[in-house]
Design brief:
Number of helices: 10
Structural class: alpha/beta
Number of strands: 19
Largest sheet: 8 strands, mixed
Strand content: 25-35%
Distance between the termini: 38 Å
Radius of gyration: 21 Å
Strand order of the largest sheet: 5-6-4-14-15-16-13-17
Bound molecules: flavin-adenine dinucleotide
Helix content: 25-40%
Shape: globular
Order of helices and strands: EHEEHHEHEHEEHEEEEEHEEEEHEEEHH
Length: about 375
């Protein structure tokens, strides 16, 4: 293993690998990526691949649009078909406040040229008649949204990074981050020490632990979400978007021959990755409430994963003030897969050129928490 590098990336999830690829494109020198387990074994491997432009803040919309360009030409650039299925996202509102906020969101999205539209309850009933609609006041739909294959995208970034000369080590946990005179100097792994002037924290839900190694508090908490998949089941020949019952915090979409149903999101942070019976019951109850025909579907499997939640549900990107060379790519709060192409690019720009030029990432700096400049969303952020 190398004793020195120009950049060390801690974490081999979708963010670390997108960054590795973009750093290789920029030829920043010797890049080493260290993953404690296997590539993608963290949040990435448990994610359901959702991609949407229907966000309610400008910064998230910018990340979505920049990432969408990459998903669209992914096969050309990476030689891997990302299996991007543009089935659309349908948000359902059941309260006046949700309705007003969704309308406001559409106005914002349309300013960016996104073809999101407000749909009234009559149209919802007509187009998606498998839904229970008696309590639905309206919704929003965008045909640009959909989902892609997580392992395909991860493979694309990994191959691209390796082609560009990035050295990737699995089974290699970083246990210490060394500092010297106000800047990062090295990381420690079981094989020894790797000295580097730039170290990136791309440790997903473990971001705070890696921060502690450098004596910094990074406000990212792991929060479990459970998901379930039914055995093969048909709902006639409807075109079925990823459908979100916002009030119930529940969503579903097709998955192979069956359906993927979201389960509950934990209230308290923790690293527990098990699934439980109560969660399965909650997922089924929500499913049968909103899509009565699913009463006959059978749950075949489920899993749990961790979101990496920041206090305002937006990413934390950039250098830590006071520790030169310590770069954060954390806190994606459940949107890291879909924003990974843009996130890798902007952090690579920051490292290679000293400034992220494609998107202004200053609102995402960690300093916003101390300064009380949190980003605000009109409703609690929806998380896939
Ligand atoms: C159930 C579920 C569904 C989701 N659905 C979506 C979705 O539809 N769309 C979307 O955009 N996002 C979704 N997400 C969120 C998405 O999965 C994450 O935002 C994204 O995967 C974060 O990527 P990451 O690379 O930052 O983290 P991770 O994938 O967790 O990667 C971090 C890596 O760092 C490694 N690591 C940690 N500490 C160390 C150390 N000390 N040394 C070496 N390596 C270390 C870990 O082993 C891990 O592999 C979902 C998440 C969950 C849980």
């Amino acid at each position: 293993m190398e004793k020195t590098a120009d950049v060390v990336i801690i974490g081999g999830g979708i963010i670390g690998l997108s960054l590795a690829y973009h750093l290789a494109l920029k030829k920043v020198g010797r890049v080493v990526l260290l993953e404690k387990g296997q590539l993608g074994e963290g949040s990435t491997g448990r994610c359901v691949g959702g991609i949407r432009t229907q966000f309610s803040t400008e910064i998230n919309i910018r990340f979505s649009l920049a990432s969408l360009e990459v998903f669209d030409r992914f096969e050309e650039e990476f030689g891997v078909n990302p299996e991007f299925k543009r089935i659309g996202y349908l948000f359902l509102a059941t309260t006046e406040q949700e309705l007003e906020t969704f309308k406001e969101n559409v106005r914002l999205q349309r300013k960016f040229g996104i073809p999101a539209e407000f749909v009234d309850s009559a149209k919802i009933k007509k187009e998606w008649s498998y839904l229970r609609t008696d309590d639905i006041l309206g919704g929003t739909f965008c045909p640009w949204d959909g989902y892609a294959g997580v392992s395909e995208v991860l493979t694309g970034f990994t191959k691209g990074a390796k082609r560009g000369g990035v050295r990737i080590y699995e089974g290699t946990e970083v246990t210490e981050v060394g500092l010297e005179k106000g800047r990062v100097s090295a990381v420690r792994v079981k094989e020894g020490k790797i000295s580097a002037p730039v170290i990136v924290n791309a440790a997903g839900p473990f971001a705070a632990r890696v921060g502690e190694m450098a004596g910094v508090r990074i406000p990212v908490k792991p929060l479990r979400r459970q998901v379930f998949v039914t055995a093969p089941f048909r709902l006639d020949d409807f075109s079925i978007p990823l459908t979100i019952d916002y009030h119930r915090g529940w969503y579903f979409r097709k998955e192979g021959e069956g359906f993927l149903l979201s389960g509950p999101l934990d209230r308290e942070p923790g690293f527990n990755l098990s699934t439980d019976y109560e969660a399965m019951v909650e997922a089924s109850e929500n499913a049968v409430y909103r899509v009565p025909a699913l009463e006959k579907a059978r749950i075949a499997r489920g899993w749990a994963g961790l979101y990496e939640i920041s206090p305002d549900n937006h990413a934390i990107l950039g250098e830590i003030p006071g520790i030169k060379g310590f770069i954060l790519a954390n806190g994606f709060s459940g949107h890291g897969f879909q924003h990974s192409p843009a996130a890798g690019k902007v952090v690579a720009e920051l490292i290679a050129e000293g400034k992220a030029s494609s998107i202004d990432i200053s609102p995402l700096s960690i300093e916003r928490f101390e300064k009380g400049q949190l980003l605000r969303e009109p409703l609690t952020a929806f998380k896939e």
